[in-house]
Amino acid sequence: MKMQKTAKSVLLRSLICGVMAIFAALTAQQAQAQSRVKDIVDVEGVRDNMLVGYGLVVGLNGTGDSLSSAVFTKESLIGMLERMGVAARDDALSTANVAAVMVTATLPPFSRQGSRIDVNVSALGDSDSLLGGTLLVTPLLAADGEVYAVAQGNLAVGGFSAQGDAETVVKGVPTSGRIASGAIIEREINFDLSRMQKFRLSLRNPDFTTARRISRAINAFVGLEVSRVSDPGTVDVSVPEGYDGEVVELITDIEQLRVEPDMMARVVIDEQSGVIVMGENVKINRVAIAQGNLTIRIRESEQVSQPTPFSNTGTTTTVDRTEIDVDEGADHQLGVVETGVSLQDLVNGLNGLGVGPRDMITILQAVKAAGALQAEIEVM
C-alpha cells in the first residue's frame, strides 16, 4: 500500500513538472513574438528635421567645375570674392579648383545650440572629384527658411578616379563626401516635453488591432484609462496625476511595455528583381496550379566539307549545321493546393513544381485573380 502511494506521488510530480515545462515553453514563445512599444511607435513631435544648403568647395587639384559651363559656380565664386573685398568681375576668370556643392544634414530632436552634427556634401556641377577639397562656410536651412546650422571643414571622400591616355579607373563615388561633426547648430527647435498634458504615439505600421493592444497595455500598466485609439495609426495618451511634470518618465515606462503587433496577410512583389515576400497569415483556398513554358533552343555550328584524298575534283568548303530543340514543358504536372494551407505549404508546393521566382510572381497574381489567395498583393 505504501509503495502504491509512492508511485502515485512520483507520477503526480512528473505530471506537474511536464505541465510547468509546457507552460514555460509557451510563455517563452509568446514573449519572443512580442515587441517593445518603443520599436513599433514614434512619439509625435520627437522627430528629425532635414537641413540643406548651397556652398563652395575649394582646394581641388584641377578636378573642379568648368566655369565656362557651370555658370552658377562662377557667379558664386565672384560673389564670395566680392564680399571679401576682391574685385573678380573679369571674363578671363578661370580656375578648376572650385566646385559648387549641395550640403545636407539631419538635425536630431532636442539638439542644443553649439553641438555638432555630420554633413554630406555632393557635387552640383561637372566636377570630376571632391577629393582633397575644403567646404567653405555654408548656412543650412530647414523647411521654414531659417538657418539652423553652419557647416565648414575638410571633406572625407571614399571614392577616387584616375585617368590616363588609354584607361580610366573610378572607385566609388568621388563626387560626394562627408564631414564628420562638420556643422555647428546655431538655432534650437523649441519643444518642451515636461509641460505637456497629453501626447500621441504614431504607429510605424498603422493597424487597428495593434493600436488597441498598445492602448490596453498602457491602461493596464498605469491602472487608469489614460489612453485611447483615435485611428489605426495614432494612440492618444493623457498624462496621469502621478506623472505631472515627468512626461519623460512616463514615455520611458511606456516604451518598455511589450505587445504583439498584428500583421496583415500581404504578399509584396518586386518585379524588377524577382523578390517575393509573403506574410505568415497568407492563406490559399483549394486551387489547381500548372506551370509550363515553351522553350526553343537553336544551336548553330559549322562543319568542313572537303573532297576525298587525291581527288582532282571538288573544293574544300564550310557547311552550316543547325540544331533545334523544342521543350513544351510536358513533364510539368498539374498540382492541387488544398484549402487553408500555410505559407510554408504554399512555398513547398510551388517549389515542387519547379517554379522559379519570376514564374511564381505570375502564378500568385493568377491565383489572386481567381479569388483563391486570401491576401493583399502589393507590387513595388
From TrEMBL:
It comes from Aestuariispira insulae. Belongs to the FlgI family. Assembles around the rod to form the L-ring and probably protects the motor/basal body from shearing forces during rotation. Residues 1-33 form the signal peptide. The gene is flgI. One of its GO terms (molecular function) is structural molecule activity. GO terms for cellular component: bacterial-type flagellum basal body, distal rod, P ring; outer membrane-bounded periplasmic space. The lineage of its organism: Bacteria, Pseudomonadati, Pseudomonadota, Alphaproteobacteria, Rhodospirillales. One of its GO terms (biological process) is bacterial-type flagellum-dependent cell motility. It is found in: Bacterial flagellum basal body. Keywords: Bacterial flagellum, Cell projection, Cilium, Flagellum, Periplasm, Signal. PANTHER family: FLAGELLAR P-RING PERIPLASMIC PROTEIN FLGI, FLAGELLAR P-RING PROTEIN. InterPro entries: Flag_FlgI. The basal body constitutes a major portion of the flagellar organelle and consists of four rings (L,P,S, and M) mounted on a central rod. This is Flagellar P-ring protein.
